[in-house]
Inverse folding.
């Protein structure tokens, strides 16, 4: 995707390509399908009535947040373990974490709305809710650590260590309903004991949600990772320019003596 | 050529002190938020989480102390009078009467599992907060007709739920 | 629809939040892209 010429001379490319167009279109179609099935075609639940429709956005948001934090940890490990220490892995980790925080935040808000309708309360200090909020706060911290300054490799190293520690919270969050007595219901789909306990059309709507949100994640992470390439390039250019400027000043001072 | 580093206030394009402090401040706030979450969770965990059949049996699930009690609302036991809701909750065939000063929200109903916060006084759980628990089972509302038919026949019983 | 405010509100929060994030991120990326030569964009 080409922009208008910058400075009227050379056309520049932004973060869009054929791949993002394909993923963006598929994600938009998936979201439209999800809204149709989630809000209209799927039935109300026997106990929860219409509030069950929140599940079709709540569960996929949580899934994408787990996926995003998992990708962050894997990319961080690859940055640390591979001899090249490529910043591409670090940028993928940073992009994925930012999107994970977005989806985790959305999970918390939709969970509170769903909780008010089904449990009767927006929030309770339950193991699942608290551990999810803690995971959210951990990766908010990860994003803050990335902005602490230093060189790009310093940023990459310290944030990679934090990501690999933070991701260990995911199994704790997922199994918290088993480890502690919890108000939150047990897993419906990702469960050890056999098939999901979901009516056919409800399961289909949830499946549409999982696909749509995964496509959204891929689309967002490609754009964000490329935006981070641009930020790093500008930072490097800024440093180069400052060095050139400093050398020029030093040469002038030397010539004046 | 003099390439000695400049002092920080003369570096061109150096981030302002405000810009450098923002991530540090954000990080400090995030650490505090994490601490608050853990503290609140641990404070809440002081209230033992007991099933009805554990009252007076399991250590910590005693009368007079602040508890969270889990059980299923017994069919035909719910009554509301002058803003006070009374019902009986059961777990593993043990029952416990509950009085709650208010009307429970959510999907509160007979045969629905609930968690009641409060303390037991003279054999009655004086609830301060009622939370409704739902299972991980999702069923088409239309199947409710079958349940209604069963209820009309007088055969309705609460199936055991945790 | 029963509880329409909560149900539709949750969809608005989700897709509104994602759309706002995407719009902010992509418009910033476009501004940055104008200042970076294409040689520094491995995807071009």
């Amino acid at each position: 995707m080409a922009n208008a010429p910058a400075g009227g001379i050379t056309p520049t490319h932004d973060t869009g390509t054929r791949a993002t167009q394909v993923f963006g279109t598929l994600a938009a179609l998936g979201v439209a399908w999800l809204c149709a099935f989630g809000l209209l075609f799927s039935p109300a639940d026997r106990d929860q009535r219409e509030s069950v429709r929140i599940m079709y956005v709540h569960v996929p948001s949580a899934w994408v947040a787990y996926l995003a934090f998992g990708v962050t940890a894997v990319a961080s490990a690859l940055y640390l373990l591979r001899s090249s220490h490529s910043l591409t892995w670090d940028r993928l980790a940073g992009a994925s974490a930012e999107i994970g925080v977005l989806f985790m935040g959305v999970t918390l808000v939709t969970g509170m709305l769903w909780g008010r309708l089904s449990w009767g309360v927006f929030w309770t200090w339950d193991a699942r809710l608290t551990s999810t909020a803690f995971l959210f706060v951990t990766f908010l911290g990860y994003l803050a650590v990335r902005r602490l300054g230093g060189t790009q490799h310093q940023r990459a190293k310290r944030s990679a260590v934090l990501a690999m520690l933070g991701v260990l919270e995911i199994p704790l969050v997922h199994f918290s309903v088993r480890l502690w007595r919890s108000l939150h219901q047990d897993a419906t789909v990702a469960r050890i004991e056999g098939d999901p306990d979901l009516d056919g059309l409800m399961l289909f709507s949830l499946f549409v949600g999982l696909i749509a949100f995964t496509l959204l994640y891929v689309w967002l992470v490609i754009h964000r990772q490329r935006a981070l390439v641009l930020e790093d390039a500008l930072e490097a250019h800024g440093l180069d320019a400052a060095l050139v400027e400093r050398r020029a000043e030093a040469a002038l001072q030397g010539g004046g003596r | 050529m003099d390439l000695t580093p400049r002092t920080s206030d003369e570096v061109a394009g150096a981030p302002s002190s405000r810009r450098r402090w923002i991530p540090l401040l954000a990080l400090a706030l995030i650490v505090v938020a994490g601490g608050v979450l853990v503290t609140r969770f641990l404070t809440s965990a002081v209230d033992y989480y007991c099933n009805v059949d554990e009252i007076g049996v399991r250590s910590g699930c005693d009368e007079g102390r602040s508890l969270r009690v889990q059980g299923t609302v017994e069919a035909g036991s719910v009554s509301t009078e002058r803003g006070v809701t009374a019902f009986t909750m059961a777990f593993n065939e043990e029952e416990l009467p509950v009085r709650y000063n208010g009307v429970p929200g959510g999907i509160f109903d007979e045969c629905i599992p609930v968690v009641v916060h409060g303390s037991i006084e003279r054999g009655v759980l004086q609830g301060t907060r009622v939370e409704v628990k739902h299972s991980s089972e999702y069923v088409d509302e239309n199947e409710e007709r079958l349940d209604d038919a069963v209820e009309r026949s007088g055969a309705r019983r609460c199936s055991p739920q945790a | 629809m029963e509880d329409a405010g909560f149900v539709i509100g949750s969809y608005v929060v989700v897709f509104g939040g994602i759309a706002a994030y995407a719009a902010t991120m992509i418009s910033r990326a476009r501004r940055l892209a104008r200042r970076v030569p294409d040689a520094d964009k491995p995807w071009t």
Remarks:
- The mean pLDDT of chain C is 92.
- Helices of chain C lie at 4-35.
- Chain C touches chain A at residues 1-4, 6-11, 13-15, 17-18, 21-22, 25-26, 28-30, 32-38, 40-44 (CB under 8 Å).
- The two ends of chain C are 48 Å apart (CA to CA).
